[in-house]
Write a structure and sequence with these properties.
Order of helices and strands: HHEHEHEHEHEHHEHHHE
Strand order of the largest sheet: 3-2-1-4-5-7-6
Number of strands: 7
CATH topology: Rossmann fold
Strand content: 15-25%
CATH class: Alpha Beta
CATH architecture: 3-Layer(aba) Sandwich
Structural class: alpha/beta
Largest sheet: 7 strands, mixed
Mean pLDDT: 84
Oligomer: single chain
Amino acid sequence: MDREAKYGMTERVYPKEMGTASDLETMMKDMHLRRYRFACDWLRRHLGGRPARIIDIACGSGYGTEMLAGLGTVIGADIDADAVAYARAHYAGPRTSFVVGNADDPAFLATLGTFDAVVTSATVEHVDDAERFLRWIRGALRPGGACVACFPAALTMDWAAPHHKRDLSLAGAERLFARVGLRPIERHHETYRVSLGQIRAEIRTNRGIPVPPLGKWVRYYLAHPHHLAIRLWQMSPLGGGILFGDQDYLLVPA
């Protein structure tokens, strides 16, 4: 398998391996890097420059863990053993370490200890029990600590299923976080457009992109007809393309 096929655009991002021939791949790479830059800049201000113990939960290939190491010592954790092996080979250092573990496993989470900061990018929509996961974050934060949690605040499950377990509206996210004692103190919102032509081009050239079979789409839209209406509008000339949105929440214990 060549490097492009192995590390092309999927749910995981490998910035060192991803090319620039695909507009969609370039956008995804830049979006994920911006998330971590945003987390680094905000946590640097919030923590006042003091050395911190940080966890990058669901770290993927480890590029973000390395970026966070400018703030202190960082543990990167991910369920994917291959991704963790890649992270250890490319991003391990005096201030970074990587472990394999499941964010849905309370026993694993209990072994990690406490942190000055928790960073979790594109995780809340994947875990089986989002409330349990956020309660762990709440308990793992030290006094004065903070969490940067990034998730798509948009319709995704028709495209990303079965990888995503839920879609979160902004109001729904507020209620979810409030139930576990986390309150947003600052929000960052980012929107970006992807044309249907870009998606078709990516599907033709990248066999690794997660595309549900037609039958799964049909069953999903029969159960969620209002989502089909949203997608048809977005793909129409009035919609101007397929619109996605990311809402980055910055959280501290209430």
